[in-house]
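Morning!

This is the sequence you dropped in the shared folder:
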Amino acid sequence: MNKSDLNFFLNQNVQIDLLSFVLSLLCAAVLSFIIHLFYVRFSTTLSNRMEFSKNFVVLGVATCIVIMIVKSSLALSLGLVGALSIVRFRAAIKEPEELVYLFLIIAVGLGTGANQLVIITIGIFFALATIFIYSKYLNNKNVNSSEIINLGIIIEDNISDDQINNLIEDLTKDSVELRFISMSRTSANTSINIDLKPNDFKDLTKITGKINKQYPNSKTILAQNTDLSL
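The structure's back. Tokens below.
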């Protein structure tokens, strides 16, 4: 490649059709919003689903804009690589499922930005249909379908660290998954707040019975948590 060819690639103007650009943005926004709805409805992650997915539409549209701009310019493509090597994007990813949905959003941005609207639409709806069918399969098989329960434990005593660890360990045995939320300790009482998914709904009475038997002066509070999912 001679110097004139190199100058052509580095100095070429980016030509974007306005109608195509707007159509791609609309398609990215709609598909990202649909993924957001599916994530809130069918996700089984531990994080707050509304809080995590509130930026799905913005991420999809932003990815579409970037791809639309850089796809026809070698210089901008190289600049994007350099910019991404400097700027680090960090997200609190707790479970692989969250990463899967982020990849779906990025795929929406890439597909719409490359003007592959039909292909990306079919692909996304196929992926969402797979999620829906798999979710129904799990519900029918009663696999991982128990509700998320918020458990508050108030013990009228300042129990030791070992007692707290043993209590958490016992709760873990009777739960599919468990997440520690908060704890407060004073000289008079100990309060522990936990989100858990029991192996079976009937295990809730088993869990509270164990706590009351071990700590007769304790109080347990159970509440359904609709915003969090394990």
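Headline: The chain is about 60% helix and 15% strand.

More detail when I'm at my desk.
O.
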